[in-house]
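Support request, please re-run this one:
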Amino acid sequence: MNIEKISEKYLAKDDLEQALECSKTLPYEIKTQIAGQVANRYLELGKLEQALECSKGLSYIIETQIAGQVVNKYIELGELEKALDKEIKLTHEQEKERAIKISEVYFQNGKFKEGIGILKDVGISQSNISPLYKKLALECCRLGKYEDSKEFLEDFPILEREKLTKETFCKIAEEYYSNGNLEKAEEVLSYLRSDLVEDMYLKIAEAYIEQNKLESAEASLRKVVYEYNERDKLRAKLAEEYIELNDLDHAVEFVIFNEDHGQAKALYIDIAKI
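Re-run finished. Output below.
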């Protein structure tokens, strides 16, 4: 029986070391073919270090192909340090894929800066993965990491950055608003210029009035400057609520500041009747 057949029999029995040993005297093409089969079998068995070792000296294409599979397996197992081993030979494209996969694991664990560092190490810039940066900005904002959220958008051109920042923070504020958590909605909005989100402050103020949280509504309305027509309608509502509570001092205060003279006159009449 020739050496090639013997190696194949060892391979069939999963006696991989013997299969390799026997193949050493075979012509290069056959020897590397068997080594590739052995490496793939090690992969199937989860013996990743042996698979890597076995792939060394094979053609560049086969070695990097096996190395890529080993790296993916390490990432699946959460062994990120092994996956990042610089001794593992990868193509540049594989290095980028590895960086993206590992960074995603970091991001899932809230390690945002570490994940970004991994991406930058292989030359993946913000412009290459802008959808990921937008996603991370949103997730950081949702987690209350507002400064980190802004940092992910920092490298965008200024007009796009301002637009994305507003969209990101308003989306999370809307989520809190929809869930009735008005305080958290305002917390998120506080990281934006109030004149950019006056419509949100009006919605929040109206919700506070409905919940009879009148002082909170007052505070929200103080942040509204340009949308004064809508603001004054809510001030009139506040005055009405204070009249209902017989709190005339507050009622008068909001009538005074009401720039709609028709509303103001009607409310003064209501106060005079008390």
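Residues 158-178 form the longest helix (21 residues). The two ends are 113 Å apart (CA to CA).
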